[in-house]
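Hello, quick one for you while I still have it in my head. I'm working through a protein record and want to make sense of it properly. Would you mind checking whether the C-alpha cells look sensible for this chain? I owe you a coffee for this, so here goes:
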Amino acid sequence: MKRALITGISGQDGSYLAELLIGKGYEVWGLLRRHSVPENQTSRLEAIGLLSNPYLNLVYGDITDLPSLLNIMGKVLPQEVYNLAAQSHVRISFDQPAFTTNADAVGVLNILEAVRTICPAAKIYQAGSSEMFGNEVDDDGYRRESTSMRPVSPYGCAKLYAFNLCSVYRSSYGMFIANGILFNHESPRRGLNFVTNKIVAGAVAISKGEASELALGNLEATRDWGHAKDYVRAMWMMLQHETPEDFVCAMGESHSVRELCEEVFSELDLDYRDYVTQDRKYFRPTELHDLKGDSSKLRKTLHWEPEYSFRGMVEEMVAARL
C-alpha cells in the first residue's frame, strides 16, 4: 500500500485528492493547521465522509514549522508528497505579503529540506500557479511551460520562488519533484471568498429573495477555469510519470468574470445585469488581465483529458449551492 502525505488536505484540492488516492488504494496522511474552531479544519473532509475512513490519518503541523515537518516525515515515511498548502488568495496576498511569502515560498523550502533529510526517495508534487506568468504571454495568446514568468502579485512572486527552488533541488540532489502549473480550477468546495463561488452563492441568495444585489470587482478580467476534480487527477498523473517534469494544466479557453455571471444567473433564470454591481475595494492593485493555458504537453505526455466543461462545472456548482 502506497503512503501519501498531503499538505493543505482540508482545502478544495486536498479533499478531492484525498478521495482520489484512497480510491486508488493509498494510505493517506493529511497535514492540518490548528484552528481555534476545530470544525472549520475538516468541514470538507467531513462532508464527503472521509473522516471515518480507516485509510485517512490527520496530523497537526505547519509548513512554516520545519521541526514539525521533520517529525511528520519520520513518522509517515511517505512515497509521495503533495504540497497543496498555501495562502492561496491573490487579492489577500497584497494585504498579507509577508505571511504569503513565508507560507508559499519558505514553506516549500521547509518541505524540500524535510524530504531530502528524512525520505529523499519520495516523489514531490509542488502546486505552482498560472499567476507566476503575470501578464507575460506567447504570441498566440497562450501560456505554456516555456513562457516567460513575471508575476504581478506577492502570491505570484512567492509561487515563482518555490517553482524555481523545486527545479534547483531536482537538478542538484536528483530528487523527483514535479511542478504543476495549474490554471484556475473551481468546484462546489471552493471557498466563498473566491469569485466563482462568490457569484454562485450570491446568485442563489438573490433567486431565493435573500439578497438584492451582488458586489464584485473587475468584470472584464478573464480566466481559464477548469474543475478541481480534473486537476487533482493531473497532479497524481505527474507523480506516476517516469521522470519529474513541469506541466501546465489548463482547459485552453478563457472566460471573463462577466461571462461567468451571465452563465450562473441564467442557470437561475435571472439576468445578472439587474443585480451585479462593481465595488473598487474588490479590484487588485495590479490586475492580471487575461489567462489562457496550453496544456498540450500534459495531454500528449500523460494522456490527461478533462471530464468537465466550463458549463458543466458551473451547473454543478449552482446545483450544489441550491
Summary: The first strand starts at residue 3 and ends at 7. The radius of gyration is 19 Å.
